[in-house]
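hi! just following up on the protien thing from before. the input was this:
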Amino acid sequence: MKNGSSVQVRLPSELGFEKVAMSTAASMAALMGFSENRIEDLKTAVAEACINAIEHGNQLNSSLSVGVVLSTAADRLEIKVIDDGGGVNATPHAPDIDRKVHGDEDPRGMGMFLIQALVDEAEWYKGPPGKSFVRLVIRLDKENE
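and the predicted 3d structure came back as:
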């Protein structure tokens, strides 16, 4: 795959369409030579980011779409998931797993933490409608760590 290749996907704000973004990201990562384990991590992170954009950013509004831009470089794949929301707190906190397991906290709300654990970089940007996004980066050189 040529460095600087870019693919754009526009998803309806309906749960289930995150699978299209997952498949696209997995295909690009495979073409770049990522291992199966790294591809699985990437698929989970992309799915979480898309679900957050559909549910929280676009409020499940079917008239809005989620943009996914995948860009390659020599050593990494970058994914931007863009929605119409106002953005989120850019420093997600680690969830209290014990409280969630024991039912003291909502079991949901771990997506941002999970995304950060699965990719090499995750940054959330606030912007006007259609300009808020999460930027994910997964690097090839992390394969052997």
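The chain has a mean pLDDT of 86.
Helices lie at 18-32, 36-57, 97-101, 111-118.
cheers
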